[in-house]
Design goal:
By secondary structure, this protein is α+β, with helices and mostly antiparallel strands. It folds into eight domains: 9-74, Rossmann fold (3-Layer(aba) Sandwich), CATH 3.40.50.2300; 80-169 and 177-243, GAF domain (Beta-Lactamase); 261-409, GAF domain (Beta-Lactamase, 2-Layer Sandwich); 428-579, GAF domain (Beta-Lactamase, 2-Layer Sandwich); 621-748, Beta-Lactamase (2-Layer Sandwich); 768-917, Beta-Lactamase (2-Layer Sandwich); 924-1024, PAS domain (Beta-Lactamase, 2-Layer Sandwich), CATH 3.30.450.20; 1107-1259, 2-Layer Sandwich (Heat Shock Protein 90). The protein is 44% helix and 23% strand. The protein has 32 helices and 45 strands. The strands form nine sheets. The protein has a six-stranded antiparallel beta sheet with strand order 5-4-3-8-7-6, sandwiched between helices. A hairpin with a 5-residue loop joins strand 44 (1242-1246) and strand 45. The radius of gyration is 75 Å and the shape is elongated. It starts with 8 loop residues before the first helix and ends with a strand.
């Protein structure tokens, strides 16, 4: 450098080598690089020194070169060993493995004139050989890997000795061609060993035409293998140390970089960029594990994701990344597309890709996975895995620190939020504002997707949303969102059981309610709001992430929920007291309003106006209940349209919301969403469909009795709150009390009027005993005082068992005396009479008992008129309107009916008594017996005509006279029967006595005396009954004569028969005389037989034992036949004359009995008329349906006094004529009975000296 400053060392060495090839040269250079070392070897230097160097360094280098030359390479050509010495020096100085590998193959090629050289190294596992440097081969060979146990190189590894190949090798040997052997002629495989371990193979080959490797070549190559292996191992160690140093420096830089922030996402992104930069990858991805659901969430992806590194969540165990998370072991997957574990994701390209994945571990647990990828054939090595693992360790620490920081921040934020909620709970009593602030605070500070507060409704059936976040929450509030407790959603579950519930994955939770307004919800938590063991609601939070709720968040939120519950309860209590004060003031105002009047209409109008002052409403009305027909009528209203008023003015109990309210005695709420609800009546649906959006109906009741319904409605869409319902219910109770008072006052007034009317009616009814006047007076009161225009009174006809309309007003007047209704069989009044129960029929068309007697009846009320258990009649009131009568009408009519019944009964009793008196008077007057009434002093009070006739005294002159004077009653011996003992009037009988008439004529009587009793059975007088015994005495006489006659009739024939028979038996008469005696006996027997036959006929007639054979009878032939027979018997003693021999209609009779009648009459006429006189028979029709037949004679005639007794049995007129005619007095009696049996009658017309006419009739047969 000092002598020849312009000439370089390389040039001097080249010039020296040209003159002396064996010259050994050492290059001293200031550039101690691999490139300079290789350049030195190319020019033939055996060594080089790096400046600055000392003479001592130079001496050592020269000595080393000389020693090697003399000991190792003395047999070699200088041109060979000299480069080798340079190789050894270069190997000592080179520490970069890649440059060292290139230096080795270039030096071997130069020193040994090789055509192809390749250096292959074993991987750390000793399983594969990788080509790290080569000369004479294609570039694709560099980096190729081969299995360590196969091929010539593999054998060299196994045997540990060099293997040479030449043309003498058996080509069919099992050793396949290996790297560098294609078209090769000479080849040698040299194992490389360092510290007793084979680390690779050096392959040196020469092509055909080149000299074969000599023994010196092989010896030298084997000698070089040891320093080559040592150099390679040193380079590897240096590379590892350098890599470790670089890694430490990189990790230090990474640590400095990521320690500058505690934001987890920023930390993760920086770590991913450092990893991609240091290891050299196309992409980087970082996934964090959600251990609650075993899912890896992608948090960093650089650049876009691939099929092996997706941007979607990965389940643990799924794909290569999931596998690493599951095993906790890092993995290199070169050519990952061939790995069966790889995930196939639609929409990503399937291309060559290598993956490097390592777990991120914290405290021995996997918290994530870091993954790098290289596209194409760029593969990862073990060092990459090691470095990425160390980066992952740094990442785990940074993630843990960031998480701790975030958790601390979050905890601080949450605690601040809890403190803020606590401050709000203490500082405010506005529950609405408190709840709204709370849910917004929870959403903002905790980062949740949605937060809401539900409160349990008063009925304990639903959890109703009271506050919620966001637009979805506002919509739910507008929709009055609520969940059924114990049935719907997590909120329903929590409010039912009073315990928290967390759904880390709502898709897997069976209780979760899928709300369409919150579609992004992935996890949900509900915490109970509890006060003194009572669940009042729930705090509901929802997140768009799965498993979004940490234990700390749950604990903080539960604390907030407890504070919120207390605040809600306090706010409720405050609001309750405030509202209670307002309600009390309102109720007091209502009470004052409704107490100002007792007029019902005024009360209802004032009450309704007051309700509108305290309740935000647009429409209202008050319905009153008509208990009689279960109908509600709209009495007072405000804001109702004409159509609305027209449609729902009247509603039945149970019909629609109003009717349901009256029926259940509970408030009923309706809104526009329930238009199709069966709860509504059709008219209400129409009203709600028009402009009413919500309404509430509260009952007006006192002590369980419903008086009506208060109906309040709104046009705007604001439902009635439970508090408003409670207030309206309380107002309704006040109105109900006022209604009841007004109704009681009205009823009291009406009852006073009724009492006055009833009093007047009672006086009217008491003043008359005339039934017609009484009935008309009753109806007049009903019509005039009670306003019943159509009414009637029906009285019982016991004989016909029916009711007769006896008096009526209105359109029922035309039915008086014409209409009879069977009791229990016809109509409503018939049912009432049979059941003795009042009945109000609001709609006759709907009652099966109604029988239409008069058209147009809409309703009817009937009340029985009873006196005790006796039914007098029915009071009936009718109307053309339906539901015209109520309970008051029933009560009033029952009172009227009770009074009328008593009056009618009294009138009927009076009429009956009067009728009975008249009847008694008629009986006494017309009775054949004499009746005389006397007082206690036996003075005459009255006489009936029979008594007048018997005594000869007229009633007027006898009254007041002593009874002994008027009725001179004596015994048959003439002793007076009146004495002092008779004044006791205890009752006496005189079977046979005699009285002397006023004219002095005595008659025989039977008499009896009976007392007349008054109150308390006191004797007020007596009744004397006297009967004329003259006829009885005459009958006794007749009977006596009858007995005498019967005795005579029996004794005379029997005596004759006995005498005749004795003569026949005791005397020897001639035959003619004997026959005469026997004929006498026979005639007497016939006489007895006839007599017995008559007695039997009488007996059978009196017993009704003779049957009648009815048939059509032609009288004239029958009469002619009887007369002819009789003429034959009479032998012409009388003449017979017929009158009216024209045709007669058929008689309906028994022909045999008609013959008997005619025979008896003809025999009687013949017996009592002189011989030769004419007997006339006449037959003709009468004006009615009878045929009249008469038998007339020209005898003596019959006196008038005998004509009435002529047809009595055993009666005979005592005169000279009758004494000569045999008879027993039975003929005419038998004739009379036979005529009457056939429906006819018989009589006699006669005058003394002019003959007699016996006439009888027979019924004519109808055509």
């Amino acid at each position: 450098d000092l002598m020849l400053p312009d000439i370089g060392g390389f040039e001097i060495l080249r010039i020296a080598r040209e003159h002396a090839p064996s010259t050994a040269g050492i290059i001293i250079t200031s550039h101690g690089t691999m490139e300079r070392a290789l350049e030195c070897i190319r020019v033939g230097a055996q060594g080089f020194l790096e400046k600055p160097s000392t003479p001592g360094d130079l001496i050592i280098a020269v000595q080393d070169v000389l020693e090697r030359k003399q000991s190792l390479y003395e047999d070699l050509r200088p041109e060979v060993w000299m480069p080798i010495l340079g190789i050894i020096d270069a190997l000592k100085s080179e520490i970069d493995l890649d440059r060292l590998s290139r230096l080795i193959v270039e030096t071997i090629k130069f020193g040994f004139r090789a055509d192809r050289i390749s250096l292959m190294l074993l991987d750390d596992e000793g399983e594969r050989l990788s080509v790290v440097a080569a000369i004479g081969l294609s570039d694709e060979v560099i980096g190729a890997t081969y299995r360590a146990e196969e091929g010539v190189a593999g054998r060299a590894l196994q045997v540990g000795d060099p293997i040479t190949l030449s043309t003498d090798v058996d080509l069919d040997s099992p050793v396949p061609d290996e790297v560098g052997q294609v078209d090769a002629f000479w080849a040698v495989y040299l194992p490389l060993q360092a510290r007793g371990q084979v680390i690779g193979v050096l392959n040196v080959s020469r092509l055909p035409g080149s000299p074969a490797f000599g023994q010196n070549d092989l010896q030298l190559l084997s000698t070089l293998c040891s320093p080559i292996a040592t150099a390679i191992e040193n380079a590897r160690l240096y590379a590892e140390s350098r890599q470790q140093a670089d890694e430490l420096i990189a990790l230090w830089h990474i640590g400095q970089d990521i320690s500058s922030t505690l934001d987890q996402q920023t930390v993760l992104e920086r770590i991913a960029r450092w990893a991609r930069q240091l290891i050299g990858s196309d992409g980087a991805a970082l996934y964090l594990l959600d251990s609650k659901v075993d899912i890896l969430q992608p948090v960093v992806l650089l650049p876009p994701p691939t099929a092996k590194m997706p941007q979607t969540p990965i389940r643990v165990g799924e794909g290569i990344i999931g596998w690493v998370a599951q095993t906790g072991v890092g993995e290199i997957v070169n050519h990952a597309e061939l790995d069966p574990r790889v995930m196939r994701i639609p929409g990503t390209l399937e291309e060559a890709e290598s993956l490097l994945c390592v777990p991120i571990l914290s405290r021995g647990k996997v918290i994530g996975v870091m993954s790098l990828n290289r596209l194409g054939d760029h593969l990862f090595r073990d060092g990459d895995l090691h470095l990425l693992g160390r980066i992952a360790y740094q990442a785990a620490i940074a993630i843990e620190n960031a998480r701790l920081y975030e958790e601390a921040q979050r905890r601080a934020t949450q605690l601040a939020a809890a403190a803020e909620v606590s401050r709000d709970a203490i500082s405010t009593l506005d529950m609405g504002q408190l709840l709204t602030n709370t849910v917004n605070l929870i959403r903002d500070r905790f980062g949740f997707y949605h937060a809401g507060v539900f409160l349990v409704d008063d009925a304990g059936e639903y959890a109703v949303l009271q506050a919620a976040t966001g637009e979805a929450g506002q919509k739910m509030l507008e929709q009055q969102h609520k969940l059924k407790i114990g049935e719907v959603g997590i909120v329903g579950y929590v409010t039912a059981r009073g315990e928290p519930r967390i759904a880390l994955d709502v898709g897997q939770d069976a209780v979760h309610f899928d709300n369409p307004l919150l579609p992004s919800t992935r996890s949900e938590m509900a915490l109970p709001l509890t006060v003194r063991g009572r669940v009042i609601g729930a705090l509901d939070v929802q997140s768009a992430k799965e498993a979004a709720f940490s234990d700390e968040a749950v604990a903080t939120l539960q604390t907030m929920a407890d504070q919120l519950a207390i605040a809600i309860e306090n706010a409720r209590l405050y609001e309750e007291e405030r509202r209670r004060a307002e309600e009390l003031a309102t109720l007091n105002a209502i009470t004052e309003t409704v107490s100002r009047s007792l007029d019902l209409d005024t009360i209802l109008d004032d009450a309704l106006n007051k309700v509108f002052e305290v309740i935000d409403a647009d429409v209202g009305g008050i319905y009153l209940l008509d208990e009689g027909n279960d109908e509600l009528t709209l009495i007072a209203h405000c804001g109702l349209s004409e159509s609305f008023f027209k449609n729902i003015k009247r509603l039945k109990v149970g019909e629609g919301a109003v009717g349901q309210t009256a029926q259940s005695v509970r408030p009923v709420l309706v809104d526009s969403r329930t238009v199709e609800d069966e709860l509504l009546a059709e008219a209400e649906r129409v009203a709600l469909g028009e402009d009413i959006h919500s309404e509430v109906n509260v009952p007006l009741s006192t002590r369980g009795r419903v008086h009506g319904v208060l109906r309040i409605a709104r046009h705007h869409e604001q439902p009635f709150t439970s508090r408003e319902v409670e207030l309206l219910t309380a107002i309704g109770n006040q109105i109900a009390v006022a209604i009841e008072n007004a109704q009681l006052y009205k009823k009291a007034t009406e009852r006073m009027k009724e009492a006055t009317a009833l009093h007047r009616m009672s006086g009217t009814l008491m003043r008359t005993l005339n039934l017609d006047q009484l009935l008309e007076s009753t109806l007049a009161v009903l019509q005039r005082s009670f306003g019943y225009p159509h009414c009637a009174i029906l009285l019982v006809d016991e004989k016909r068992e029916e009711l007769r309309i006896e008096a009526a007003r209105g359109y029922l007047r035309d039915t008086v005396g014409k209409l009879g209704i069977k009791i229990g069989q016809e109509g409503i009044v018939g049912w009432v009479a049979a059941n003795r129960t009042p009945l109000n029929v609001p709609d006759t068309t709907q009652d099966d008992r109604y029988v239409e007697k008069v058209k147009g009846i809409g309703s009817e009320i009937a009340v029985p008129m009873l006196v005790g258990e006796k039914l007098v009649g029915v009071l009936d009131v009718q109307s053309t309107e339906v539901n015209a009568f109520g309970e008051d009408d029933l009560r009033s009519l029952s009172s009227i009916a009770a009074q009328a019944a008593i009056a009618i009964e009294r009138a009927q009793l009076y009429a009956a008594t009067l009728a009975e008196r008249n009847r008694t008077e008629r009986i006494v007057t017309n009775i054949a017996d004499g009746v005389i009434t006397v007082d206690r002093e036996l003075r005459v009070l009255s006489l009936n005509p029979a008594a007048e006739q018997m005594t000869g005294w007229q009633g007027a002159e006898a009254i007041g006279c002593p009874c002994a004077e008027v009725l001179s009653l004596t015994s048959e011996s003439g002793e007076s029967l009146w004495n002092e003992s008779r004044k006791e009037l205890s009752g006496y009988n005189f079977p046979r006595a005699r009285i002397v008439r006023k004219d002095g004529r005595p008659i025989y009587v039977s008499a009896s005396l009976a007392p007349l009793l008054g109150p308390a059975d006191q004797v007020m007088g007596g009744v004397i009954a006297i009967r004329d015994c003259s006829a009885d005495m005459e009958l006794d006489r007749i009977k006596s004569e009858m007995v005498t006659m019967v005795s005579h009739e029996l004794r005379s024939p029997l005596a004759n028969m006995q005498t005749a028979m004795e003569l026949v038996l005791t005397s020897d008469f001639e035959e003619d005389l004997q026959r005469e005696m026997l004929n006498l006996v026979r005639s007497q027997c016939a006489r007895l037989a006839s007599f017995v036959e008559e007695l039997l006929d009488v007996s059978q007639l009196e017993a009704g034992q003779i049957a009648t054979r009815w048939e059509p009878v032609t009288l004239w032939p029958l009469i002619q036949r009887v007369v002819n027979t009789f003429e034959a018997t009479e032998q012409g003693a009388h003449r017979f004359q017929f009158i009216g021999q024209g045709e007669l209609p058929f008689a309906w009779a028994d022909p045999r009995k008609v013959e008997m009648i005619l025979t008896n009459l003809l025999q009687n006429a013949a017996n009592y008329s002189p011989e030769g006189s004419t007997i006339t028979i006449e037959a003709k029709t009468t004006d009615n349906t009878d045929i009249m037949v008469s038998v007339s004679d020209e005898g003596e005639g019959i006196a008038h006094e005998h004509q009435e007794q002529l047809f009595q049995p055993y009666y005979r007129i005592g005169n000279s004529r009758s004494e000569k005619v045999p008879g027993r007095g039975l003929g005419l009696y038998i004739v009379k009975k036979l005529v009457e049996m056939q429906g006819g009658r018989i009589w006699v017309e006669s005058e003394v000296g002019k003959g007699s006419h016996f006439i009888f009739t027979l019924p004519r047969m109808e055509e």
